[in-house]
């Protein structure tokens, strides 16, 4: 198996591995995050995605530290992303949130720090109406202090990203958004690329994964014989076809798995190529379905969807 993971270049000259390990779980068992990170690094992942909201930074940090201490990788080999939560959007709270994450992760710098959502909320969940432009000043200060190499956003719509770009002295390098074969996001992806912001796909398996039983009935992609035929042709799984479709669109993917074989499988995408008709077939599964509509944020002024 060809294990070479390609990288995508940022507008600041730095690079991000095109496949990263996602780490969000609604119902984790103790130790699962640490174990997944260790299996991931052993399998060849060098990019790990977490967030303060996932409440797993301590375990993710333990997994990273274990592999560094065993001499398998050095800190420089790794690309670590974490995210600022909605209750730390005040300009003077950004560095506080970032330092808290660094402490939990046992790191002295991040590769990428993201504004997790454009919405700002108090700890009690009330709308704080803090402009994300103010938050961005705190993010820029984090770069100046050397606490993170790059900064970016997540869940920003086109209008919000365009407005941010008008004010940013340090440009965001990515917009991490939901993209999958059932939510292809061509318009927002094209916009991001047109302004040199790298699109990163979260929930890249979309309705193909079993993680979202609430959408049973919409997930016809799972049993579509055309996708089975495509997977069989390349001796790959349907998950690998979905991830390859995104990677061929030059979109960074961050699939999450707690299963050793799937963690390995999701990295094994570089020994086949989908042709134009096959890309169009995967594209045709689009039903603009959001697995993460974040409807509990709909009451906030800057709700993006
Ligand atoms: N910025 C944001 O607001 C945001 C929102 C959501 C997610 N994210 C990030 O994006 C990451 C990925 O998104 P996600 O976790 O929602 O969804 P996902 O990666 O698309 O799907 C994860 C689910 O798919 C299963 N799976 C993984 N690989 C598989 C394979 N090869 N075959 C079949 N099933 C497979 C996993 O099961 P097992 O674990 O049981 O193997 C898990 O249930 C998150 O972990 C997080 O880091 C960011």
What does this structure look like?
With about 300 residues, the chain is of the alpha/beta class. The protein has one domain (about 15-295): NADP-dependent oxidoreductase domain (TIM Barrel), CATH 3.20.20. Helix content is about 35%, strand content about 15%. The strands form 2 sheets. The chain has an 8-stranded parallel beta sheet. Helix 1 crosses helix 2. The termini are far apart. The mean pLDDT is about 95. Bound molecules: NADP nicotinamide-adenine-dinucleotide phosphate. NADP nicotinamide-adenine-dinucleotide phosphate binds near residues 154 and 259.
CATH class: Alpha Beta
User: How many individual domains?
Assistant: 1
Tell me the quaternary state: single chain
Helix content: 25-40%
Strand percentage lies at 5-15%
CATH architectural label: Alpha-Beta Barrel
User: Biggest sheet, strands in spatial order?
Assistant: 3-4-5-6-7-8-9-10
Specify the structural class: alpha/beta
Rounded radius of gyration (Å): 19 Å
Instruction: List the ions, cofactors and other small molecules found in this model.
Output: NADP nicotinamide-adenine-dinucleotide phosphate
